[in-house]
Amino acid sequence: MSDASIEPPHPTGAWVAARRRAFRDAVAAFNATRPVLILGHHDADGLSSAAILFRALERSGQHARVRLLGRGENAWSPEMASELRAQDIGGLILADLGTRAEPPLAGMATVLLDHHVPTGVPEAALLVSGHGLRPTPTTSLLAWWCAGAVAEVDDLLWLAALGIIGDMEEASGFHELAAARERWSITALRRAVSLINAPRRASAGDAAPALALLLKADGPKAVLSGEYPETAVLQASKAEVQEALAEGRRVAPHIRGEVALIPLHSACQIHPLIAQQWKGRLKDKVVIAANTGYRPGWVHFAARSGQDTDLIGFLRRHRPDGADPMNYGNGHPQASGGALPPSAWNRFLAGLGFGADLEVPA
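Structure (tokenized):
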């Protein structure tokens, strides 16, 4: 069952109510004798979405587990399909991982919550998508809305706020964020987002401590307080990322035409942060921060633009041979990127007008 009907310009109360009913019915169709598996992205939006869904399902009496996807992993890969087939689960929920025309595991009752540009609309699963709405609800907000159909989740609004701030900063226009700001303090929410995002950006790339913290904290101040051991782990990750970021900020951009390229080599995921920072200084350019040290054998890159450039369209027009659609040009029109093997990356660079001096050894 798809969510492909014509969307209103903004998520009205009726729109939310309809998605809640669909989510409630989809969860009711899961095999209640087996746990629900939640697959989630490892950023603040994905982590908070997974925490909301897990806590709501557990409150409803349905056992759940969470599996975070990290570097180089894709929910639709053959490896993930094998992993899912080996598990005894009664239903599958994907949060903040994109969409495809087919579910990750054929025959498994599946729900997808997402706000990115869809690359396919599944017919054999429920898709609750925020794409096309103005403003666009983050996956965490979609999760909070839907979770309210199976359990009381008013006290979990702070988790939705973390996802909103993490993906949209604070200019979202959602009254839910305004309510969370008043109830939990915007300063605490901002600081919690920074801390929760740190582990996946650190060299180890392990967001499990961040998830563990979100599953037991009762608000952003508890995340920050140090009463749980995971906070110290997150603080250490943040310090490592800050050091790498300081080094990355010293790299000057190479400019060809409409593109500004910032070459990086760091085991930390600093390329989106560097691209975001240069976006404000090079407002007439497509800023691409490329990191050759993030994952061996790959060039990971983040694209940002200070104008209204459709980055997904831009990357589509410049797609090099060898680009895997699962790892290239997805995300948002104003925040995209991907990962390419060195040979494809070098073709990508050449197509943008850059010379051999910036090529990456294959």
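Confidence is low (pLDDT under 50) at residues 1-9. The two ends are 44 Å apart (CA to CA).
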